Amino acid sequence: MNVGLFDSFITQGWYNQEARRIWSDEGTLQSWLRVEAALAWAQGELGVIPKDAAEAIALHTDIRKFDLVSLTREIAFTQHPFVPVLRQFEKLCGEPAAGFIHWGATTQNIFDTACALQMTETHAMTLRFLSATIDQLAEIAREHRHTLQAGRTHGQHALPMTFGFKVAGWLDELARDRERLEQRFAFSFVVCMGGAIGTFAAMGGQGPEVERLMAKKLGLRAAGLPARSSYDRVCDYVNALGLLAGTVERIAHNIVFLQRTEIGEVAEAFHHGKVGSSTMAQKRNPSTALMLISMARLMRSRVALALESMVRMDEGDSSASNVSDVTLPEIAILAVSMAETLSGLAGGLIVSPEAMGRNIRLTNGLIVSEAIMMRLTEIMGRHQAHHVVYEAAQRSITERLPFLAVLRGQLLVRSRDLPAGLEQALAEEHYVGESVRLVDEAIARARDSH
After folding, report:
1. Tell me, what's the pLDDT at 416?
2. Which residues are catalytic?
3. How far apart are CA 444 and CA 331, in angstroms?
4. Of the ranges 200-214, 280-294, 368-382, the best mean pLDDT one
5. What is the pLDDT of residue 277?
6. What angle do CA 254, 257, 260 make, to 5 degrees?
7. What is the mean pLDDT of residues 282-300?
8. I need a labelling partner for 312 at 20 to 30 A (CA). Which of 104, 133, 138, 289 fits?
9. Who's near 107: CB < 8 A, 6+ residues apart?
10. From CA 312, how far away is CA 440, in angstroms rounded?
11. pLDDT digits (tens, 9 = 90+) for 316-351
């Protein structure tokens, strides 16, 4: 029986299969066993437990030897998520090694450190897909650095720009997202092996060194002060993923808007057989972009859950850690899947310069009203120029009259002539500001940041 967003036959295709495998029951159990083996190895090296016991423990960390059906039943009965695992592990290792498994550790030590291992894998995948997207967007921005497009604010034409400038905005923000994730990861996912309340009480004075050796073996950092009640480090990274989700949703929303039938400036990739509606055969919906918006919303909802689980009572609180234990896998899978889907969307993006050119001319020059206002300051103050252009623009819109003709009439009322070259100022390509230079700088910045 499949239940939930990652296993449903409706939605499982949204999510990266390798990320799902890493965070599956099998992947999680294997990570727990890997942590237990590293703990035994470090303690064996330091003489906390016999070396031969550590070697025996390491030999029995193959999850194929475990009965997952029995574990499910026993976990429900004992109401403890790890003791049944330890009991099967002890039987597999036999005596005397069984007596040295989990020495001085507590369940949360194993779970949190195993999560760090799993997150290491999915973090690398997220960065790989993000880097691919950044490269794809850099190429689109470079190709369309001169392609005219209407800049919009509040859903309305604002000023001319280039499509490359819009894409450079996506690119620049994604590069910052990647940098944030890279900076935060190593400090956020560490080896926490302090025992019942984080004081290393059961490790005979060797606890900090055990933690340090484990961290070295597992490719992580040592927590230092492994307080079970502290979860700010993980939340720091999760918050960065929440920011990534915001960027992803913004880009996807832009694409949905630009793919509207009336606009048609971009479109996501289409293949024959892709269906937009069960009744309207003509529909080519931006389904990938819409799916990205959904995933971004799912991600941000889980960021709030992670923050809630940061507030922990006393030195251990399963009401909080229970939430993070089930939320973090979802966050990791969503992060990889968002990054992968965004890369696919960017790689297949279809751009229509013709539609952009058509749309920018819809208002017959009104989109460059600021340019005209700035030229009028040569013969009057900026405030007066704004008033003249405002009156001309509003009359042009209301009465559907040519903007330049109405403006000429406004100026004649004031006994003014049009400044020389004002008609040329209506050419949209002359008022894109520093769009091209800013595109080039954003591309260089993104490439230099990695």
Report:
1. 67
2. 154, 277
3. 31
4. 200-214
5. 53
6. 150
7. 89
8. 104
9. 80, 81, 82, 83
10. 48
11. 889 999 999 999 999 999 999 999 999 999 999 999
Q: What are phi and psi of 266, to 5 degrees?
A: -140, 165
Mean pLDDT computed over 298-326: 93
Domain 14-357 - what CATH class?
mainly alpha
Separation between Cα atoms, residue 332 and residue 299, nearest integer Å:
9
CA 122, 325, 90 angle in degrees (round to 5)? Answer: 95
Assess contact for 66 and 242: CB atoms under 8 A.
no
pLDDT of residue 273 exceeding 70, the answer is: no
CB-based burial of residue 437 (10 Å sphere; 0-12 exposed, 13-18 middle, 19+ buried)?
A: exposed
Q: How far apart are CA 36 and CA 113, in angstroms?
A: 10
Structure tokens at 94: 């036999």
**In the chain, what are the domain boundaries?**
14-357, 363-432
pLDDT-derived band at 61, boundaries 50, 70, 90: very high
Amino acid type, 192: C
Q: Quick: pLDDT tens for 208-221.
A: 999 999 999 999 99
Nearest to 351 by CA among 151, 139, 173: 139
**One-letter amino acid of 353:** P
Distance CA 188, CA 119 (A): 10
pLDDT of residue 426: 75
Q: Domain 363-432 in CATH: superfamily?
A: Fumarase/aspartase (C-terminal domain) (1.10.40.30)
The helix/strand/coil state of 16 is coil
Q: How far is CA 281 from CA 263, 277, 285, 289, in A?
A: 20, 6, 11, 20
Whether 301 and 208 have beta carbons less than 8 Å apart is answered as: no
The whole-angstrom separation of Cα 299 and Cα 306 is 11
Planar angle of CA 417, 422, 427, nearest 5 degrees: 155
Question: For residue 413, is pLDDT > 60?
Answer: no
Q: How many residues does the chain have?
A: 450
Locate 64 and state its tokens.
């194929």
Instruction: State how far the Cα of 217 lies from the Cα of 200, in Å rounded to an integer.
Output: 19
| 3-state helix/strand/coil string of 206-260 | CHHHHHHHHHHHHCCEECCCCCCCCCHHHHHHHHHHHHHHHHHHHHHHHHHHHCC
Residue whose pair of structure tokens reads 């994730």 in the numeric block: 181
d(CA 446, CA 448): 6
